[in-house]
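Office hours follow-up: a student asked to see two folded examples consecutively, so here they are.
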Amino acid sequence: QVQLVESGGRLVQTGGSLRLSCAGPKGARSFFPRGWFRQTPGKEREFVAAISWSGGKTVYADSVKGRFTISRDNAQNTVYLQMNNLKPDDTAVYYCGAIRSYARSDYTGAKDYTDWGQGTQVTVSS
């Protein structure tokens, strides 16, 4: 099991910025590919961004391209999501997930993730 802990969510105004953090366990289990998803009540979990174990590959949903940046610091066992120019439609619970495999090349499907954090609430006021 890969235990993940998200933090950084809060209330912010339209156009503001936030940085979410996803802390993983120490050691090799922290190096798996990770992704950020978001979910609102009554809807399925939606892909936001993902990053390979080395950080050399990143993938973004069209809705956040140019506004969000995913990065990782493996020395700190942490993956980040920098969110700029936030919009009310970005309001959701944001979840960090890990894929316990280095073989996958597609990180956009929630069903492929093996471990999840508890989520952190992001609310963007208009």
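And the second, which I mentioned at the end of office hours:
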Amino acid sequence: QLQLVESGGGLVQPGGSLRLSCTVSGFALDYYIIGWFRQAPGEEREGVSCISKSGLVTNYANSVKGRFTISRDNAKKTVYLQMNSLNPEDAAVYYCAARTNINRDYCSILDEYVRWGQGTQVTVSS
């Protein structure tokens, strides 16, 4: 069974950077589109970014464009989310999630994802 484990969260000052990792087990990573989502207290879950199975297509929420970068290393079964210029509005629990699609060059943060990790906390504060 596919399992996803996030890591890399923590406390960072405004303007700082973090790199989140999502490591999968149970199946080969390249079977799956991977998305990153976040949820702050009292807020709805928000799609942040996704990456296609091929790694050639990525999408980002407008709120993170130009600051966050998603990438994947299928050999290491890991997807990364590099987050730069963090601000307090980025603070949330970040989740990675997986879904399948026949198209290797497609992803959307608006689709339904079927397998989820447990999340990693990101706190942005001085």
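Two things to take away from it. The chain has a mean pLDDT of 96. Residues 29 and 74 are 6 Å apart (CA to CA).
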